[in-house]
Amino acid sequence: MASGFQWAKIQAMFDAFDADGNGYLEQRDFEALTARWGRLPRVAEGPELTARVEAVIMGWWRLLSEAADADKDGRIDMAELMAMVDRLPSMREDVAATAETIFDAVDENGDGRISRAEHQRLIDTWHGRSMTTADVFDRLDEDGDGYLSRPEFAVLWTQFWISDDPQEPGNVMCGPLAPTA
């Protein structure tokens, strides 16, 4: 059973994905998310990366609709999504595999690392609007070198999706979280 912390984290993801704000995740929300990611410079310039990004994001939709849409109405509400959260730890390799494509999409200059500015674009793209991020990057950049390497990113990405430990830095990978009671 998901904790209050996980609920808050997943609610933030749900709200970011729910493009039309109708309280449900639907295929068109994932299509809108794909379009937002498609505007990132490296994605827009490369058909291979565009196809990978689309495959990852629409793959999330397919997985969710098959596994979480209990009433098969083509819409996933927050309760249905939370039922899926308990299954994520057993899908660690699948979750980590999506990090590779997201990393490539965000690494605008192709230097093999994510800068503070590139990470900010990840957050803004995720949410579909400019977001204030405070010290999020500093929490993620544990070695303090000013960048996230591919291995660091994969760990943080997996923490974001799977972690129930509020102290793990990956929980803020896609932006600051609202405090939980």
UniProtKB/TrEMBL annotation:
Domain EF-hand intervals: 5-40, 66-91, 94-129, 135-163
Keyword annotations: Metal-binding, Repeat
Domain of life according to the entry: Bacteria
Pfam families attached to this UniProt entry: EF-hand_7
Membrane-crossing residue ranges in chain numbering: none
Designated name of the protein: EF-hand domain-containing protein
UniProt organism field: Streptomyces zhihengii
